[in-house]
Amino acid sequence: MTTGILSFGAYIPRRRLSRSAIYATNAWFAPGLKGLSKGERAIADWDEDPITMAVEAARDALTGIDRATIAETILASTTFPFADRQNAGIVKEALTLSDNSGTMDVGGSLRAGTTALLHALGSSDGRSRLCIAADLRLSRPASEAELLNGDSSAALVVGQGAVIARHCGSHTVSVDFVDHYRAAGSDYDYGWESRWIRDEGYHGVLVDALKSGLAVLGTQAADIDRVIIPLVMRGAVASVAKKAGFRDGAAADVLLEQVGDGGAGHSLLMLVAALEAAKPGEKILLVGFGQGVDMILLEATDALLDLPARRGVAGSIARRSPDSNYARWLFHRGQLDLERGMRAESDLKQPATALWRERKGVMGLVGGRCTRTGTVQFPKTEISVNPNDHARFTQEDYPLAERRATIVTYTADSLSYTPAPPLYYGLIDFEGGGRMKVEFADVEEGDVEVGRELEMVFRIHAVDERRNFKRYFWKAAPAATEA
Amino acid sequence: MASGIKDKVAILGMGCAKFGERWDKDAGQLMVEAFDEALVDAGIDSSQIDAAWLGVAYDVVNLGSSGIPMSFALRLPNIGVTKVENYCASGTESLRGAVYAVASGAADIALAMGVEKLKDTGYGGLPIRTLGTNLDMIGIEGSGPGNFAQLASAYRSVHGVGKDDLKRAMAHVSVKSHANGLKNPKAHLRSAISIDQVLNAPMIAEPLGLFDCCGVSDGAACAIVTTPEIARALGKKDLVTVKALQISASNGWEQQQAGGWNGSYFHTTRIAAARAYEEAGITNPRQQISMTEVHDCFSITELVTMEDLLLSKEGEGWRDVLDGVFDADGAVPCQIDGGLKCFGHPIGASGLRMIYENYLQLLGRAGDRQLRNPPSLALSHNLGGQPSENISAVAIVGLANA
């Protein structure tokens, strides 16, 4: 059987912060950043993190795929919310994947995305694996990273059968080249001089690895149709591609203009964009860089043409909300200590007992369906809500997360505390039954009314700042118009 | 069906503290203020009380737990004191306990007290509190205005009412209550306002602006109840009796059954009203009810409640409001004391404050704001929770011969 990529998905937060807005505030202090002040970068909302972004990319990748086939969920990131509580495990719960499936976190390097993919491709049991990468890297105000980074996630389903891209081989080089690092517990990277990184790292370590790797893979640079080199330093991709002998135009766009550097997930994000544009038969070389080099050679197949429509990178880039509110973003990233008022003082302690007991409903948005009356409800309860038949103990699990809903009632609440006022919420009815009172996400002013169609998104519900615990739950976002 | 409590219980005396930002008094002192007025009115002393109920919603910022704080504050004679909590309907809930105790014969004289000390929290609006372990994981900590504002979105959609039309009708509700509150010395807010002031006020929760929201106040109100026979034996001539007292609690249907409730009305109020009218023998509320005090926590709440109480036809409440049907000189005056909007809303006290006004009006003791047409049956509606899940209490009191 052929091993390779069965499906792909992506998620880029809708808000795109104008780099010129960042620069305008910081120019007095760091005028040298002007050269980086073009275009826009993706920014996660206050209630997003690598876990929530990973869930959204995974849902996109699982379009048309039976979730029961997923044997393992692998999540790559350098900014995991939890150091000891498996992050991939939270993603698995949100996706309502089988308890009889594996989970794994891969981190420690910007190469983590490709390393996770190598693990998935190298597993020999023939079963499908969900490989996701997501990063939300903090950066100091007035740093280059602040302008270059962009929050995003990409996901691939890897396995055997009708692959859209055949795995033709891989090669890895590992060297402790410290172009930057982030110590455990630190918020920010520390980086070395960019000229040295370019000369010794990109033109040295990377180009050498590409040359030796292509030989190991039994191919030549000139035969590669698309090469994915996730380096956002200006001119780096072009010079590396040229020195390694790739054809003009083979190097994929790094998505800097619209998205920014997605960290551990950026190589996979670029791969998704490449697959969206690729034709069957094209050879794609995927490169990961970080304390060494991962190289994965893929060949697009005819199955690519039959892949069901999805959001992907193109759709994610198109779902865009231009933003110039630099202060809001700093606040959402915890870098601006706004006066939040007494209403923000609630103790948000999460009883572990209750989360475990209710995990399917809370993490997976699984409601109940009465097997006698067909009544759907959330949450699932022992006695049905149906007034005509309060049937007892008749409910089966009924997942609601992938169902669309419509607004029954709503408000925009300026009194309740939220990091993104006003707080939008209301009562919604799901297609096919089920109703809940829920917070809305991603609402643009004027785009909320009774009857408006919604889709569910996995988000941070609340943060217990005293105990460093994040509570996740589902919110309802205005549905994209294309669906 | 049960025979009900119509005319089985009489109000012997009532008291109500001055509502407002009572920086000078704690919850116990507010209770004493209301209690002393009620004792004088009843013509008894506290040793004659057999049982007591205390309604209070936010125990942590008030009194602490249990009925003991009231027993201490009023130095009650070691009788049973029961604390009840049912959101903003706690006041009527405490009266239900006292009325049922007298109706059953278990007590000759019983006390119902409601109190709330909200202005020790440090901010406007109601205090933040947990929704409960499970709901904290899946619920929204919406504000009161945010929860009730949603009525307006659904009402507009269900009845095809324009945003501006509904906003103007809501504004009329508040302007009317301010005009009434101006005449009430115990009211928290005593100032007339204009329609334009309401329409141009800062938005709190769409579409509710500042003047669509009631005051948040400190206060206490109480009732001493007994049987009509004992009341007469104690020398009372004009008796106000309880005609009906019904409470309905949501069971989740509104919030969980898709396609059921449409979000534009109170399911429980319709149920409680129907039961109360049956208990009181009222067949035509619009003709028979002389006046109402309803739970106008927000202007839109009062507006849709007029329909739920069958005082307006469904979908036409906003027109009746604009036509002045519920104004002081209208067919069925509403909030003649200023309502929650202006008298104020110390949560646990509000249900009893409403009945206090109805009681004064029935006895012709309402001073400057006394209704010109002598009322005979007065309704109070006291609601706790939010439109999608709530406790709705309807109490009807009237002259003994009405």
Structural account:
The complex is a heterodimer of chains A (483) and B (402). By secondary structure, chain A is an alpha+beta fold. Chain A has helices spanning 19-26, 50-61, 87-94, 112-122, 144-148, 194-216, 236-244, 266-277, 312-318, 326-332, 352-357, 359-364; strands at 3-11, 15-18, 40-42, 70-76, 102-106, 128-135, 152-160, 165-174, 180-181, 190-191, 226-228, 283-289, 292-300, 321-323, 366-370, 376-377, 395-399, 405-413, 423-430, 435-439, 453-464, 469-478. Chain A has 3 domains: 3-181 and 192-332, 3-Layer(aba) Sandwich (Peroxisomal Thiolase, Chain A, domain 1); 366-399; 401-483, OB fold (Dihydrolipoamide Acetyltransferase, E2P), CATH 2.40.50. Chain A has 12 helices and 22 strands. In chain A, helix 2 (50-61) packs across helix 3 (87-94) and helix 6 packs parallel to helix 7 (236-244). Chain A is globular and about 75 Å long. In chain A, 48% of the residues are buried. In chain B, a hairpin with a 2-residue loop joins strand 10 (377-386) and strand 11. Chain B folds into 2 domains: 10-119 and 218-233, Peroxisomal Thiolase, Chain A, domain 1 (3-Layer(aba) Sandwich), CATH 3.40.47; 143-207 and 240-399, Peroxisomal Thiolase, Chain A, domain 1 (3-Layer(aba) Sandwich). Chain B is globular, with a radius of gyration of 20 Å. In chain B, helix 3 packs across helix 15 (347-362). Chain B starts with 9 loop residues before the first strand and ends with a strand. The mean pLDDT of chain B is 96. At the A-B interface, strand 16, strand 18, strand 19 and strand 20 of A face helix 4, helix 5, strand 5 and helix 9 of B.
